[in-house]
Structure prediction request, 550 residues.
Amino acid sequence: MSDLGFTNGASHWHHDAVFYQVYVRGFKDSSRDGSGDLRGLIEKLDYIQSLGVSCLWLMPIVRSPLRDDGYDVSDFLDIDPSIGSLADFQQLTDAAHQRDLRVITDLVISHTSDQHAWFQEARQGPESPYFHYYVWSDRDDRFPEARVIFADTEHSNWAWDHKTKRYYWHRFFSHQPDLNYDHPPVQEAILDVMRFWLDLGIDGFRVDAVPYLFEREGTNCENLPETHAFCKRMRRLIDMEYPGRILLAEANQWPDDLLPYFGEGDEFHMAFNFPLMPRLFLALRREDSRPLIDGIENLPAIPHDCQWATFLRNHDELTLEMVTDADRDYLYSEYARDPRMKLNFGIRRRLAPLLDHDQRRIQLLYSLLFSLPGAPVIYYGDEIGMGDNIYLGDRNGVRTPMQWSDERNAGFSSADPSMLYQPVIADPLVHYQAVNVEAQLRSPASLLHWLRHQLRLRRSQPLLSRGDIRFLQVTNRSVVAFTRSHRDAIGLFVHNLSAAVQPVHLELAAYAGLRPSQFGGNHGFPVITTEPYFLNLAPYEPLWFLLEPV
Ligand code: GLC
Prediction:
């Protein structure tokens, strides 16, 4: 059994969690129809466990016409038949729990598909009991300050419904009408959806698109007090009825607007660290620690029981909304040289191609992700450095089939290759015959082996998930150095952001008398004195030390 007290329903598990984000459709096909499914995922649980992660995040698994990969829900209370059944889901959660893996899924609360029965009913007109489940208007100029999020596809947040002869409100695709949270039955219905999945034994939710629940004239319709009030209701439900389960917020916002989603420890347990993510890519490309240090230092402390979810990539474009215009231009010019790589306000690429498939840089960013505060989230396929396909539309190029082996369809499916929901990556540079789990398991120097090892080291020391952080003053800006401390344990983490060897003098006088020993046990380093401590770092080298008494 895990040392995190899984079986006694320990709360606070989210502090130490490492998440693995799974796109079920793209993970493993057990039914030979060319599309991944829950039974396929069950087959691969041993693999997921072997990574050393502790919680799966499943992208939407509920019924959907799949025009936005399940983020367009047509029935909240059933599994989409293309990936399985409720019985399969039950088996999956049981099988995961047996392996000490928790399971959370996406909960899409801000909108439904236009195919959802509520919307179809609502279209009968104002007499319908469901009419007020959505936001209607005779005009399409209300709430003009609300930005259009999918700017490459949509021109307005209003769409015309010819049946009711009215406009309806949508923050994402026009086939995703927004729910009307001013209508109390909507709030009750969503709370019941939560109960349904929590009763099935799920460990929490990644709550999708949280900031947009309410609309108020004269505002940008994001982060409104009413939205926070509903989020607190969700949290009360968890605390009263399902203690130990968690809520993780997707709120792509600046720190001042993001922080309130933690409330005073009475709203979300976790929130994605959107401001930090692009700053890691900035720091690496500029070979400059400043954006990274600013990214952490500009985030005020969060309530004691809360935790950040940190990530490098996910299923969406690498969003650049939370950086200045100048930084966004820089990131576009460095990471999206082909215009095809851009989407909305971001870059639709996977981790490895963003970093030119340079294993040193990939490891460097992961090392930062695993040593900075927060619970890391790993996107499926990025643990083997999978490539992407910018010739597929929308965000599909980062959702191609998982590459298991060099067999047909990368071992993802034994269906006819032309039946696959999307082609496997066949770019010669990162062809699935070379980049796959089986090959990397055979090679001790692979990214996969390194990542598993690094996660083992992380698990060995609670300071990595719970420790305070303090940046050290370093004159060489290509090097970032910080300590993490928790109880009596002190860790020192030094990363070379540059492509060249870098010398660095660290001010460690406060730790004089202690000896840095590398995680995993190398004791050959000199004892710290009151003099500056000298280190030489190889290009892109990450160093993890424990500071131990001699
Ligand atoms: C979130 C999801 C994204 C989806 C959107 C609309 O941002 O991450 O994939 O398209 O919500 O539901």
Remarks:
- Residues 179 and 366 are 37 Å apart (CA to CA).
- The pocket of alpha-D-glucopyranose is lined by residues 68, 71, 108, 172, 208-209, 250, 315-316 (CB under 6 Å).
- The longest helix spans residues 225-241.
